[in-house]
């Protein structure tokens, strides 16, 4: 395809880095940064121990409401624990789960996808059958079975999510790898006698990174939501460790009377997922050379 | 958001007033009561799954003898009964004025059929009555005579009173499948419609021998999500809701809704792992001071008031005897005293505190979280694992929990359950300690309830401190029913689903 | 003299991008007479395609906008037309062929469906006639066995055939003007020749005017009557084909010709001329080619050269046109 | 045809592997005996019960027996429901199908047009609104949305029943909930694949032919994007199961999602095995169907 039809596509290229930066949804970035910061600094910024119960101060409403006090800015829950402190500590768990799952999935899914796509043949069909199996399993139910077998714990929840989720990404990476394999630079590298591992590492990996980053970013929200569903079914990250999903799930019995117990974590989940999704969308557009035209 | 609540009430009232005829589910007959419940179990009528299905079983049928309070038995379909001294022969005299829903008369044959050894498989969870322990059940005129191979402690309280009598002739005529399509019994309500996993519709049995129920129509609806059940109670879709202890009862209270607790008293206990694990290692739990410290660290009165709806209290004893033990200072629960608890730990050489695993079933989550928090204050670092009941039981029964672990468990709090649990033959040996071993065996051997009770108070109760399970909270009942506006009274709400006969509509 | 079929006057098309305004077409004027073929030649980014898209009023949205000038097709100003009016003109009065036959056809519709689409839209033919018309068109562009081919999908055909089908679609409503944007770039050399021959034949038969946008002087030589050379958004030289080949007057044209590939070579782009085309986002003074021109003098850098008519029909924008002519 | 056969074969192999996974996983979580036996049961009682359920055999034996019976459509007897596991599952299937089909249909009816319009008017108000809706929909816990719907429409407004299966009014909230997530997802996929297509040369050509814009968008472009959309619909079936678990729980909808969750907690292996196997089979078949539809839409796949 000749490059004449839309000259401005080229014209934009020199300034692309800056333009891209300018288009970074600042609010989304800020939300994610805030969540990460809260996760890192929880012990120092949380006003209370998130697990400390206080039966005399149950269901304290948020500070601005009748009966609220500045002791519990966002109110307290059914066991008198400070909602704000739990939100801040919850960031630690939720972000840890999200980041750990997404990063591990990215590594696992990418590795398997590249190997399957590059090696082809029997390796490919074995790995992809494996992915097929995972994709055909109702993964929530499998997670339930496994958790009820090994018990709910933070690490178990992470491992289960990772094991169940890599297949989708590996499919995408495999498809791209197969296309890249046909490209000249790979052929050239082969001719030059470069070994397959090195080709995959140096030539294929950088080229699939775009998709990996985009899919992974979009996965952050999905993982947080998945953990919340596990909590809803009683098999999420176990208490007293606070997780956002668990807080929403626990607070649902007080939806109308002590709405703050579940509303704030619900809003935080929504905000962070939204921010992650927006960033994912933005990355998709910024990294896809084709979408640059739009 | 603050105004949501204020907004809700007038809207709700308006909806009920103006829209009652427009909204189909609100357009109820005056005496129709809808009960939203978490589960009705497998919803089979034969076999009758007593463990999971007590409401259905109890509402359409009656047992021979009814347990009306933790220790009180009343005649139901049997006008009288006798137990032989060795506890091996039971004789029931069947009333002759009871009709099944199809109009046929209840006879001793029906009772004999219900308990026949070949039908024992139909009682899920009644292991001791299975596997050949029932030698024979015979009908002789208006009497039924049951012979056992081995005595079963609290046979009537624990078993007979929970099985409702099924019509032999009808069952044989229509078969199991037919019976499950249209089950009949002697109970206060008749089944008119049963849509599995959704609802069971019942109407009053005009000829009920205990008097016609005041409710014309009783609808059971299966609603697994507690928040949804509360919503149903609030918008009038349900008149009665089952509520798990803890969480949702607080919400009921906040709306000024009435609640009644139901079922047999239970209590939450701490079970120490060291005698339940495979390896026989020394354990810090063997020291009674440690066990006491764990108990005293928890403000049990506050916990009971806060999460158990004020209906429950700190438990003193593992087993609740017939006579109220609270009168006797000996049976008063250990008071909340974290300072003393710390001192006890120090005496036991654990002044630095220790780490422990706490396993709890997920329905006791709040209690477990509270305990972890309280223990933390005396330096005990407990790591909580919530398991679903089957996992917990399996871990426990198969002795797969290792190290010093504590299990939070819930058991029935009357003599029946406790003695059953203490039965040395039981696979699930729950509670024992070297000090009480001999006593356990002796107590189980007593068949006569009166003598057993005497034995309990005189001999066993003083030694309870030596038992390893530590009682934490005595819960009044199994759970709580929330009552909507159309339920006027529930005057005679007793242990079994029979209580639904006494529901009074507005 | 009768009015030309298409008259473009001082056309200015700018692209408003985030990084600045690109003056892609910056004051272009030319005309096309009925039945003649005008070649527009230039490097990539010189504004050829933007000119074509401006005529069709299908600029990339939302960046592209015509900011000045007139485009008169049979005397009517297209710039002033509404979108709806343009829809009626496109495909009927003028048609366009895009460069890539592989991607110009919708992969999920059959050839027949695609060829009949404009006929149905503009002519509203009943189904029976429609089918006949489609077969006739396919025959016209020399597709063998058109009766069976109508049910084929694009991917079942060769590149040359596809481009001929694109031609059939373009010609289906018998337009007066056909704009062909590098229609042969993606084709084999032999297929290229065939295709151009076909275009010539059709042109003769239908009395069609063609604007041939290309960077390939080989194509120009084969098919064009006149040529306009574009550089950096402006036309720098216009002449009859033979004249231009004989006596190119603009240094840019000369450079282009020197770098012209041989006909038997397939090429996607021009061999480079030293230097870079200017950044069209800047306000430019002087001759745009001056920075790359070996003959540039001070005036070249200060003032844009006026149009010089060096011979009838041969105009050039160069301060040194005379000297250049002499040199060629 | 070979293609279909090959895919079917792959499907069968996948299904076989699924049965192994489910079989082993369910055994991992311990036996159901502690739920069946009362605490007073003796070791002998336990042994009798184990033998009755066939759980005393080795895993391999158990699996082979299960597989053999399953081939004949017999998934064993439900431990909890005391009825054939397969028929227990089938009793619950219609409710889920009803809910799933309505949810998918509604969300397709909303999401596809919205995605198309959003792509055509990229950057416009409609696009922004649709994107905001889609992103928010994908960002909130589904059970929270469900409970909020109950609160608003059942408790505060009193328009719709909270739960249960019955007439149309009972279907609205669950379908809305279940459709919510897929709606958002489908809209995004539609939008992005339409954006890809609208950029293509053949769409420009269609414009150059002077075809009406409506026809270009809804026929020429959409048919090209349809392959991706249909594939997405296929992929959504499995995540629909997740949604169904939550939706059915909140709205007391008597479907298979709830059934399986409860069966997992009851350690009712036969039902879990039957359900997961059949669901996996359905998913595999749907994806096969999707591929065939894809091929039907896009001739390049059909013949390539």
From TrEMBL, chain A:
SUPFAM superfamilies: MetI-like
Topology versus the membrane: Multi-pass membrane protein
Taxonomy, superkingdom: Bacteria
Transmembrane segments: 26-46, 93-118, 130-150, 208-237, 257-283
Keyword Translocase: no
Domain ABC transmembrane type-1 span(s) in chain numbering: 91-280
Main location: membrane
A Gene Ontology biological process term: peptide transport
Xref: CDD domains: TM_PBP2 (cd06261)
Gene3D superfamilies: MetI-like
Tagged with keyword Manganese: no
Keywords of this entry: Cell membrane, Membrane, Peptide transport, Protein transport, Transmembrane, Transmembrane helix, Transport
PANTHER family cross-referenced by the UniProt entry: D,D-DIPEPTIDE TRANSPORT SYSTEM PERMEASE PROTEIN DDPC-RELATED, OLIGOPEPTIDE TRANSPORT SYSTEM PERMEASE PROTEIN APPC
UniProt family annotation: Belongs to the binding-protein-dependent transport system permease family.
Name of this protein: ABC transporter permease
Organism the protein comes from: Vineibacter terrae
Upper classification of the organism: Bacteria, Pseudomonadati, Pseudomonadota, Alphaproteobacteria, Hyphomicrobiales
Automatic annotation (TrEMBL), chain B:
One annotated GO biological process: peptide transport
Secretion signal span: 1-29
Positions of the Solute-binding protein family domain: 72-404
InterPro entries (UniProt xref): SBP_5, SBP_5_dom
Matches recorded under CDD domains: PBP2_NikA_DppA_OppA_like
Keywords, in A-Z order: Signal
Annotated compartments: Periplasm
Keyword Membrane belongs to the record: no
GO MF entry, a single one: peptide transmembrane transporter activity
Family membership: Belongs to the bacterial solute-binding protein 5 family.
Protein name according to UniProt: ABC transporter substrate-binding protein
Annotated organism of origin: Vineibacter terrae
TrEMBL record, chain C:
GO molecular function: ATP binding; ATP hydrolysis activity
Domain of life the protein comes from: Bacteria
First-listed, main subcellular location of the protein, grouped into a coarse class: membrane
Keyword Transmembrane helix: no
InterPro entries linked to this entry: AAA+_ATPase, ABC_Ni/Peptide_Import, ABC_transporter-like_ATP-bd, Oligopep_ABC_C, P-loop_NTPase
Pfam families: ABC_tran (PF00005), oligo_HPY (PF08352)
An individual GO BP term: transmembrane transport
Compartments (UniProt record): Cell inner membrane
Membrane topology per record: Peripheral membrane protein
Gene Ontology terms: cellular component: plasma membrane
Residue ranges of domain ABC transporter in the record: 6-257
UniProt keyword list: ATP-binding, Cell membrane, Membrane, Nucleotide-binding, Transport
Similarity section: Belongs to the ABC transporter superfamily.
Name the record gives this protein: ABC transporter ATP-binding protein
Organism, scientific name: Vineibacter terrae
Lineage, top ranks: Bacteria, Pseudomonadati, Pseudomonadota, Alphaproteobacteria, Hyphomicrobiales
From TrEMBL, chain D:
Keyword Glycoprotein part of the UniProt annotation: no
PANTHER family documented for this protein: DIPEPTIDE TRANSPORT SYSTEM PERMEASE PROTEIN DPPB-RELATED
GO MF: dipeptide transmembrane transporter activity
Protein name: ABC transporter permease
Keywords: Cell membrane, Membrane, Transmembrane, Transmembrane helix, Transport
Main localization of the protein described in the UniProt heading: membrane
Keyword Membrane: yes
Family of the protein in this entry: Belongs to the binding-protein-dependent transport system permease family.
Transmembrane segments: 7-25, 99-120, 141-161, 167-186, 225-251, 271-297
GO cellular component: a single term: plasma membrane
SUPFAM superfamilies given in the database record: MetI-like
CDD domains named in the record: TM_PBP2 (cd06261)
Record-annotated ABC transmembrane type-1 domain positions: 93-294
Coiled-coil ranges (or none): none
InterPro entries: MetI-like, MetI-like_sf
Stored Pfam families: BPD_transp_1 (PF00528)
Compartment annotation: Cell membrane
Membrane topology recorded in Swiss-Prot or TrEMBL: Multi-pass membrane protein
């Amino acid at each position: 395809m000749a490059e004449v039809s839309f000259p401005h596509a080229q014209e934009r290229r020199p300034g692309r880095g800056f333009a891209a930066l300018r288009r970074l949804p600042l609010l989304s970035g800020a939300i994610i940064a805030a969540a990460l910061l809260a996760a890192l600094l929880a012990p120092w910024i949380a006003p209370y121990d998130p697990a400390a119960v206080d039966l005399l101060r149950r269901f304290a409403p948020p500070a601005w409401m009748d009966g609220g006090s500045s002791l519990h800015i966002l109110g307290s829950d059914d066991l008198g624990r400070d909602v704000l402190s739990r939100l801040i500590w919850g960031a630690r768990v939720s972000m840890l789960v999200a980041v750990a799952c997404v990063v591990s999935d990215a590594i696992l899914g990418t590795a398997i996808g590249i190997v399957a796509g590059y090696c082809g043949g029997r390796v490919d069909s074995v790995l992809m059958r494996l992915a097929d199996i995972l994709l055909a399993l109702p993964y929530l139910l499998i997670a339930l079975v496994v958790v009820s077998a090994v018990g709910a714990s933070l690490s178990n929840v992470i491992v289960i999510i990772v094991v169940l989720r890599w297949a989708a990404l590996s499919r995408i990476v495999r498809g791209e790898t197969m296309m890249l394999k046909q490209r000249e630079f790979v052929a050239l590298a082969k001719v030059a006698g470069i070994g397959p591992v090195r080709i995959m590492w140096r030539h294929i990996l950088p080229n699939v990174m775009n998709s990996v980053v985009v899919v992974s970013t979009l996965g952050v929200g999905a993982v947080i939501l998945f953990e919340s569903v596990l909590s809803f079914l009683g098999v999420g990250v176990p208490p007293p460790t606070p997780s956002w999903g668990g807080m929403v799930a626990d607070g649902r019995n007080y939806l109308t009377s002590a709405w703050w117990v579940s509303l704030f974590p619900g809003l935080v989940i929504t905000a962070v997922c939204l921010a992650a999704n927006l960033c994912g969308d933005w990355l998709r557009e910024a990294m896809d050379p084709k979408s640059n035209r739009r | 958001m603050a105004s949501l609540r204020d907004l809700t009430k007038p809207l709700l009232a308006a909806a009920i007033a103006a829209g009652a005829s427009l909204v189909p589910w609100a357009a109820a007959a005056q005496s129709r009561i809808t009960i939203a419940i978490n589960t009705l179990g497998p919803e089979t009528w034969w076999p009758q799954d007593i463990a999971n299905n007590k409401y259905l079983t109890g509402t359409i049928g009656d047992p021979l003898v009814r347990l009306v309070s933790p220790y009180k038995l009343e005649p139901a379909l049997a006008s009288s009964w006798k137990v032989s001294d060795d506890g091996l022969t039971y004789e029931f005299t069947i009333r002759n004025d009871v009709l099944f829903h199809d109009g046929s008369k209840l006879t001793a044959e029906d009772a004999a059929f219900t308990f026949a050894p070949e039908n024992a498989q139909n009682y899920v969870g009644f292991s001791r009555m299975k596997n050949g322990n029932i030698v024979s059940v015979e009908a002789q005129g208006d009497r039924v005579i049951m012979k056992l191979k081995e005595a079963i402690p609290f046979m009537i309280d624990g078993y007979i009173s929970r099985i409702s009598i099924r019509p032999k002739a009808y069952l044989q005529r229509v078969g199991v499948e037919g019976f499950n399509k249209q089950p009949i019994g002697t109970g206060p309500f008749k089944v008119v419609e049963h849509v599995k996993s959704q609802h069971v519709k019942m109407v009053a049995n005009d000829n009920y021998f205990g008097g016609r129920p005041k409710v014309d129509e009783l609808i059971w609806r299966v609603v697994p999500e507690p928040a949804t059940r509360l919503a149903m109670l609030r918008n009038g879709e349900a008149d009665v809701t089952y509520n798990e202890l803890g969480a949702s009862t607080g919400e009921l209270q906040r709306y000024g809704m009435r609640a009644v607790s139901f079922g047999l008293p239970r209590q939450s206990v701490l079970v120490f792992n060291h005698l339940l694990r495979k390896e026989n290692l020394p354990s810090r739990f063997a020291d009674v001071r440690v066990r006491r410290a764990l108990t005293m660290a928890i403000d049990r009165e506050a916990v009971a008031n806060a999460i158990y709806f004020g209906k429950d209290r700190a438990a003193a004893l593992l087993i609740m005897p017939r006579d109220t033990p609270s009168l006797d200072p000996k049976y008063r629960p250990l008071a909340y005293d974290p300072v003393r608890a710390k001192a006890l730990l120090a005496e036991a050489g654990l002044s630095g505190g220790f780490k422990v695993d706490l396993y709890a079933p997920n329905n006791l989550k709040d209690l477990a979280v509270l305990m972890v928090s309280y223990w933390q204050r005396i330096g005990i670092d407990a790591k909580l694992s919530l398991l679903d009941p089957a996992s917990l039981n399996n871990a426990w029964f198969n002795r797969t929990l290792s190290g010093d672990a504590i299990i939070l468990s819930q058991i029935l709090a009357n003599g029946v359950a406790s003695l059953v649990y203490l039965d040395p033959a039981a696979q699930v040996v729950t509670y024992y300690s070297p000090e009480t071993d001999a006593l356990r065996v002796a107590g189980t051997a007593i068949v006569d309830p009166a003598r057993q009770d005497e034995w309990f108070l005189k001999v066993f109760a003083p030694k309870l401190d030596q038992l390893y399970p530590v009682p934490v909270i005595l819960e009044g009942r199994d759970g709580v029913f929330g009552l909507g506006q159309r339920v006027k009274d529930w005057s005679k709400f007793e242990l079994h689903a029979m209580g639904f006969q006494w529901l009074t509509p507005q | 003299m009768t009015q030309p079929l298409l008259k473009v006057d001082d056309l200015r098309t700018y692209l408003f991008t985030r990084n600045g305004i690109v003056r892609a077409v910056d004051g272009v004027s030319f005309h096309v007479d009925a039945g003649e073929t005008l070649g527009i030649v230039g490097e990539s980014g010189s504004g050829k395609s933007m000119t074509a898209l401006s005529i069709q009023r299908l600029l990339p949205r939302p960046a592209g906008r015509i900011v000045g000038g007139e485009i008169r097709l049979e005397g009517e100003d297209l710039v002033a037309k509404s979108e709806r009016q343009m829809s009626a003109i496109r495909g009927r009065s003028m048609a366009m062929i895009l460069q890539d036959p592989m991607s110009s056809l919708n992969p999920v519709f059959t050839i027949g469906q695609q060829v009949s689409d404009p006929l149905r839209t503009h002519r509203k033919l009943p189904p029976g006639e429609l089918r006949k018309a489609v077969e006739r068109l396919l025959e016209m562009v020399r597709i063998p066995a058109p009766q069976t081919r109508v049910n084929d999908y694009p991917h079942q055909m060769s590149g040359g055939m596809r481009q001929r089908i694109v031609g059939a679609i373009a010609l289906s409503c018998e337009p007066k003007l056909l704009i062909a944007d590098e229609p042969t770039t993606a084709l084999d050399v032999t297929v290229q020749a065939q295709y151009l021959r076909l275009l010539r034949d059709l042109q003769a038969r239908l009395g069609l005017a063609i604007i041939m946008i290309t960077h390939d002087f080989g194509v120009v030589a084969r098919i064009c009557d006149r040529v306009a050379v574009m550089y950096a958004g402006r036309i720098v030289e216009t002449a009859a084909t033979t004249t231009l080949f004989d006596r190119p007057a603009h240094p840019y044209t000369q450079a282009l010709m020197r770098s012209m590939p041989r006909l038997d070579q397939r090429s996607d782009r021009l061999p480079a001329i030293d230097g870079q085309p200017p950044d069209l986002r800047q306000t430019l003074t002087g001759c745009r080619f001056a920075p790359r021109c070996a003959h540039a003098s001070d005036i070249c850098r200060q003032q844009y050269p006026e149009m010089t008519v060096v011979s009838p029909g041969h105009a050039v924008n160069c301060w040194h046109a005379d000297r250049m002519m002499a040199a060629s | 045809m070979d293609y279909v056969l090959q895919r079917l074969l792959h499907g069968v192999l996948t299904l076989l592997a699924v049965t192994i996974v489910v079989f082993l996983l369910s055994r991992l979580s311990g036996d159901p005996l502690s739920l069946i036996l009362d605490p007073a049961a003796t070791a002998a009682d336990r042994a009798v019960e184990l033998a009755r359920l066939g759980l005393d055999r080795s895993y391999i034996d158990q699996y082979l027996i299960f597989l053999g019976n399953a081939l004949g459509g017999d998934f064993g007897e439900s431990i909890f429901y005391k009825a054939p596991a397969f028929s227990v599952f089938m009793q619950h299937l219609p409710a889920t199908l009803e809910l799933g089909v309505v949810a998918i249909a509604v969300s397709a009816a909303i999401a596809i047009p919205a995605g198309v319009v959003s792509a055509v008017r990229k950057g416009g108000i409609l696009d922004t609104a649709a994107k905001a809706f889609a992103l928010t929909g994908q960002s909130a816990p589904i059970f929270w949305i469900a409970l909020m719907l109950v609160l608003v429409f059942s408790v505060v407004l009193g328009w719709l029943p909270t739960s249960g299966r019955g007439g149309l009014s009972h279907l609205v909230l669950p379908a809305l909930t279940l459709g919510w997530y897929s709606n958002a997802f489908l809209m995004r996929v539609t939008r992005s694949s339409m954006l890809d297509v609208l950029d293509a040369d053949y769409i420009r050509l269609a414009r150059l032919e002077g075809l009406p814009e409506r026809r270009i968008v809804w026929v020429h472009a959409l048919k090209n994007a349809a392959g991706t959309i249909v594939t997405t619909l296929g992929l959504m079936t499995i995540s629909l199961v997740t949604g169904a678990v939550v939706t059915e729980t909140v709205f007391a909808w008597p479907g298979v999602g709830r059934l399986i969750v409860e069966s997992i907690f009851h350690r009712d292996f036969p039902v879990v095995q039957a359900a997961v196997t059949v669901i996996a089979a359905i998913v595999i078949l749907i994806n096969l169907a999707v591929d065939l539809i894809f091929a039907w839409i896009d001739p390049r796949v059909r013949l390539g």
